[in-house]
Amino acid sequence: MKNIHTMKQSVQKGFTLIELMIVVAIIGILAALAIPAYQDYTIKSRVSEGASLTGAYKTAIEVYWSENGTLAGLTDNSLNPTSLGLATVSGEYVSAISIQVTGDDRPELVVQLRTGTDKLGGLPAEGGADGGCFNYIPTPIGSSGTNIRWTIGTGEDCTATDIVPPKFRPRT
To answer: For residues 105 and 73, is the Cβ–Cβ distance under 8 A?
Structure first.
């Protein structure tokens, strides 16, 4: 009688090999789905640094628009950071922000991302944004004195060979 009781208690003390293999397979599937999504998220966060650093430039151009009622007549020289009362801006993943005046007399903010590694020598800037660039284009809504709508450009005016793919660009 004692042997039967002892046998019943020691029947199962752990997981079977099949149960462990199923758990490992599930973890592998989840990792295969999560890693690409995480890499895209990392690239988007690095590109978004450019969006946050353009805030002062956008404000300066909006003030010019509200005071003068036009964006025409601006030149690259009149819109440099010094003339707008701004310091030259760069960041961990952004190498430079510049202002270029297009053929239709509209200033565009060009955000140039770093190539290779960030300025601190840390992680690489990663494939989708490495050395790329994108631009912000102001579009006045209505007549003078109204608001300006900023849109993300496709990067035609960028001097970089790589344009940031649309899925990584900031949203307006």
So the answer is: yes
* Count of Cβ atoms closer than 10 Å to residue 150 Cβ: 17
- Long-range CB pairs of 121-127, under 8 A, 24+ apart, other chains included: 125/46, 125/93, 126/39, 126/42, 126/43, 126/46, 127/43
pLDDT digits (tens, 9 = 90+) for 73-92: 666 556 666 666 676 777 88
CA distance 155 to 9: 71
Q: What is the pTM of this model?
A: 0.70
Q: Are 171 and 134 in contact (CB under 8 A)?
A: no
Where does 45-168 sit in CATH, by number? Answer: 3.30.700.10
Sequence-ordered list of residues with C-beta below 8 angstroms from that of 163, at least 6 positions apart, any chain:
132, 133, 134, 154, 155
